[in-house]
Write a structure and sequence with these properties.
The protein is of the alpha/beta class and 330 residues long. It contains 13 helices and eight strands. The protein has one domain (13-325): Metal-dependent hydrolases (TIM Barrel). It has helices at residues 29-32, 37-48, 54-61, 81-101, 117-131, 153-162, 192-206, 209-212, 231-241, 253-260, 271-281, 297-306, 311-325, and strands spanning 13-19, 65-70, 106-108, 136-139, 166-169, 218-220, 261-264, 286-287. Helix 3 (54-61) runs parallel beside helix 12 (297-306). Bound molecules: zinc ion (ZN).
Length: 330
């Protein structure tokens, strides 16, 4: 297996690395609306490229491997169930052949047709067992349904049985909340995506997905989508204000965050939130992501190499946790 050895000699495997194929560029329309047209055109060029700019950028930043995912919202933007199934297979087959041509540089997250939960579970199993994919990456909601919906139990069950994580990535919301009216610039990665995705993670916890599937693993990007900063208050008010009488069988809300949730550094190259996440979640639950091409690769890798944390924790975040959780043989 050909892996790059960076001068600083720390292997790095990044988990939030996006791409697109020409047939599915149109699914990105709602994400395009959060950017200027010129910026989006540039992004589509970078998302579609693998060899000309991406691998040289990886080499420059000392990034050994990208775990690739179809850009948000991906297949979930499809309203036709049958088309969602066939396009999932199309993009997953493409990704499999790309990985086969560049072993050691690329790995993959499956795109799933959640429009048909049973088909999604089957596609997860096909891509994990036959292609060696690392799990699946889901973008926000699927046609207005969130991952705590009982219909998706079949997907969680299959993911837990295969021992692969589900990566929950942001996507444009179903609607624009009243609070953003007059300030639509806040809609997107700048603010609303983090709130929405952290909220969906809380739905998954309080919807008792992890009570039903105790070994399921959920990965959140962007340094945990605001959750690590919020654990104490979430428990304190849960104990006092649980007015709907929800009974969590496996502890307080924060216990689920610490046990079932893993986070990546994607799109955040800043020591303050990393140190918070380390204290809140522990180094075994943090992995690196770059959010390429929406952020630069070197920004993420240089940040981690220079972060004010121990070399032991750095190695866990850079590659050891990925090797363990994604069953990667680097
Ligand atoms: Zn991303």
């Amino acid at each position: 297996m050909s892996t790059l050895t960076h001068p600083l000699n720390m292997k790095i495997v990044a988990l939030e690395e996006h791409f697109v194929i020409p047939e599915l560029v149109g699914y990105g329309a709602s994400t395009a609306a959060t950017q200027t047209p010129a910026a989006w055109q540039k992004m589509v060029g970078l998302l579609s490229d693998f060899l000309e700019k991406r691998i040289p950028e990886m080499d420059k930043g000392g990034l050994d491997m990208q775990v690739l995912s179809l850009n948000s919202p991906g297949i979930q933007a499809e309203s036709d169930r049958q088309v969602a199934i066939s396009n999932s297979m199309l993009v997953n087959d493409f990704l499999m052949s790309l990985i086969a041509q560049h072993p050691g540089r690329f790995a993959g997250w499956a795109a799933l047709p959640l429009q048909d939960p049973k088909a999604a579970a089957d596609e997860l199993e096909r891509t994990v067992t036959q292609f060696g994919f690392c799990g699946a990456l889901i973008n926000g909601h699927c046609q207005g349904k969130y991952l705590d919906h009982p219909d998706f139990d079949v997907v969680w069950e299959r993911a837990a049985a295969l021992d692969v994580p589900i990566y929950l990535h942001p996507a444009p919301a179903v609607d624009v909340a009243h609070v953003y009216q007059g300030h639509e610039e806040l809609v997107g990665p700048i603010w609303s995506w983090g709130v929405d995705t952290g909220t969906q993670a809380m739905r998954i916890i309080l919807g008792k997905v992890f009570d039903r599937h105790p070994t399921a693993k959920l990965i959140l990007g962007h340094m945990g989508e605001l959750l690590p900063y919020s654990l104490w208050r979430m428990d304190s008010r849960w104990e006092r204000d649980n007015r709907h009488g929800i009974e969590l069988g496996l502890g307080r809300p924060s216990d689920y965050v610490r046990r079932n949730i893993y986070i990546t550094t994607s799109g955040v190259a800043s020591a303050q939130p990393l140190l918070c996440a380390l204290l809140a979640m522990g180094a075994d639950h943090i992995l690196i992501g770059t959010d390429y091409p929406f952020e630069g690769i070197s920004v993420a890798t240089e940040f981690l190499r220079g972060a004010p944390i121990s070399e032991i924790d750095k190695a866990k975040i850079a590659h050891q946790n990925a090797e363990r959780i994604l069953h990667l043989k680097c």
